[in-house]
């Protein structure tokens, strides 16, 4: 029997995912009032809000600790003045993705796989998002553009895997996702579909019967990579969504971003790995923060990250230890960070 941290606020009523998404919180004052925080905090959000808007689902807020301005889930979404600070090594396009942007809607960064930018929208605006400045409006392929993407995929037999990315690809409606899937699955050399999404965590209602139906019918091997950064993000609704995906043989992995003040202790990361495994997800990557402008306050230095990774290796079985990696602009793969015994 799985046990979960009890929700601190009243859980919002269960709605369709589209209605729940439309009911997301976008006003810092409302978020602060719901969490019974000092109302003066709202004044400190206004300038950062102009750089990147607030957006958070009510079900995610229900997992936060009322009265605690340092809550690890709140820190991921609340705009703060530190985002206004300028640091020379934190840039608007830290991964230089414009050079991998071969066609509108397509990034070809790695050998054997491509990313499709299915949508620029997200269910939650993470303050550390490395694409918070990405030009999504210039990357909307439209019907003709998607045909060009399919032709690009068909012409390169080395491409075996397509990654639905964004934004958050599960913000797209099922008919659009199935349209993309059906065309991709007709290309014989493509064998795998990977979906990177925060939605199963922040809005588990998204894993509905329509989505499950077309995923279950795919000839492709389907992998879902969730983005979960703290054990408190997992509740019984997230567990239910993961079990539904496991039931149709979707491979479940998780990618965590290492964030100062959120999950930068061995205890935090160990608890996260254990909580993920309980609901059928294997830890995949522990990712160093991509150095996007406005996010320096989340950074953990590499030496400390190595020490944390070493502690995980000492205290967890190997299958629960995520790979510590970083992304280097222009490099054709994630770069492993080698840890040394301490």
What is this entry, summarized?
This protein has helices at 17-22, 28-34, 46-51, 58-61, 72-75, 142-155, 174-185, 199-202, 209-216, 236-247, 266-278, 302-315; strands at residues 106-110, 113-119, 161-166, 192-197, 221-226, 251-257, 282-287, 323-326, 335-336.
In CATH terms, what is the architecture of the largest domain?
Alpha-Beta Barrel
The CATH fourth-level homologous superfamily of the largest domain: Aldolase class I
Taken together, the total number of domains comes to 2
Our estimate of the beta-strand percent is 5-15%
Highest-level CATH class of the largest domain: Alpha Beta
The number of helical segments is 12
Number of separate strands:
9
| Annotated CATH topology of the largest domain | TIM Barrel
Class computed from helices, strands and strand pairing: alpha/beta
Q: Tell me the series of helices and strands, N- to C-terminal.
A: HHHHHEEHEHEHHEHEHEHEE
**What coarse outline follows from CA principal-axis ratios?**
globular
Give the terminus-to-terminus CA distance: 37 Å
Describe the structure.
It is a single chain. With 342 residues, the protein is an alpha/beta fold. It folds into 2 domains: 68 residues, no CATH class; 240 residues, Alpha-Beta Barrel (TIM Barrel), CATH 3.20.20.70. Helices cover 30% and strands 14% of the residues. Strands 1-2-3-4-5-6-7-8-9 form a 9-stranded mixed sheet. A hairpin with a 2-residue loop joins strand 1 and strand 2. It is globular. It starts with 16 loop residues before the first helix and ends in a 6-residue tail after the last strand. The mean pLDDT is 92.
């Amino acid at each position: 029997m799985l046990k979960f941290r009890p929700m601190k606020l009243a859980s919002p009523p269960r709605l369709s995912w589209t209605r729940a998404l439309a009911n997301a919180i976008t006003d810092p004052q409302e978020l602060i009032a719901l969490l019974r925080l000092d109302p003066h905090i709202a004044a400190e959000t206004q300038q950062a809000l102009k750089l990147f808007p607030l957006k958070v689902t009510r079900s995610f807020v229900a997992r936060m600790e009322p009265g605690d301005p340092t809550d690890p889930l709140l820190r991921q979404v609340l705009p703060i003045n530190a985002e206004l600070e300028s640091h020379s090594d934190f840039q608007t396009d830290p991964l230089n993705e414009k050079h991998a942007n071969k066609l509108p809607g397509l990034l070809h960064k790695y050998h054997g796989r491509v990313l499709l930018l299915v949508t620029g929208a997200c269910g939650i605006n993470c303050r550390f998002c490395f694409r918070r400045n990405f030009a999504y409006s210039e990357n909307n392929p439209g019907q003709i553009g998607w045909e060009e993407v399919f032709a690009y995929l068909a012409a390169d037999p080395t491409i075996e895997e397509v990654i639905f990315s964004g934004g958050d690809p599960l913000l797209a409606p099922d008919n659009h996702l199935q349209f993309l899937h059906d065309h991709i699955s007709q290309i014989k050399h493509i064998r795998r579909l990977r979906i990177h999404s925060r939605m199963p965590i922040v809005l588990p209602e998204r894993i509905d019967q329509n989505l499950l139906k077309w995923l279950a019918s795919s000839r492709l091997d389907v992998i879902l990579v969730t983005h979960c950064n703290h054990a408190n993000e997992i509740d019984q609704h997230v567990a239910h969504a993961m079990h539904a995906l496991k039931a149709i043989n979707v491979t479940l992995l998780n990618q965590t971003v290492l964030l100062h003040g959120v999950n930068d202790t061995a205890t935090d990361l160990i608890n996260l790995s254990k909580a993920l495994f309980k609901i059928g997800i294997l830890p995949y990557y522990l990712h160093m923060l991509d150095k996007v402008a406005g996010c320096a306050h989340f950074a953990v230095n590499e030496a400390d990250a190595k020490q944390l990774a070493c502690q995980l290796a000492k205290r967890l079985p190997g299958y629960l230890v995520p790979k510590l990696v970083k992304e280097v602009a222009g490099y054709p793969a994630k770069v492993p960070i080698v840890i040394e015994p301490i």
